[in-house]
Amino acid sequence: MPKRCLGLLGLLFVLALAGCASERRPSTRAAGQPDDIHVPPFARWPYQRFSREAAVQIAMREWRAFGQPVVVKHGELAGDPASGNERTEGLWQRIGEYWWLGLPFGASEQGFTGKHNQNGTVFSAGQDTGYAWSAAFVAYVMRMAGAGQRFPYSATHADYINAARQRGTADRSPLAIAAERPESYAPQRGDLICMWRGRRPIRYDELPTGRFAGHCDIVVALRPGLIDAIGGNVDDSVAMKRVPTTTDGRIADSDGRALDPDHPWFVVVRVAYDIN
Question: Considering the entire predicted model, what is its pTM?
């Protein structure tokens, strides 16, 4: 074969490799393109109205997929957490779906999985704090339950906690969420209970307060003196917490102090579903 043809073939091969590499990164959103173009029709239109039962059952489904782990004292998981964590075959891909479907199209984090960065490179277990997926999990559940444009999908819990607090003072807000004081509102199934994380405590009265380290779980069951709540990225898994409550179902005492000795819950995000 002539050298000229070989050179052309080599160039085509290099371009093909470059094309494959570019396909490994999430596409950027074109001007005017909706940020939910990647969402399946059943959730995007949606086929069914935004449903409390859907959110609860989707969260329960994901919990079962991870082996139904339960948080015990001091925030540890009962059993062997490594048996169903973010790097397990079959589950790291599932976390990739939380990132891809939960976030707006074009978000830089959309290419993440439970063990890969946006370029498909495996990161070490020690680097996983840079790829925390608990907010993506909540966003995924809300998206699949039919929230549509009424939830502020984000990779950071603080974004929708702050939005929920601002929603309480904006009567015409399109959002379906509002922040409630934990000492005055008893969470219902499908609501979110949220805690601050990090060195500085966050109080309800400080909201909205910019970006801060936080975590939210989805309430899935109410029992006398307890709430069952499911969250993502809990010891690298989807896990359930059993949160103590007052006799009337609140997660804080009259002074706003969380009853849970292990988790500093400071706000409830009430979700206004179309169907209870």
Answer: 0.88
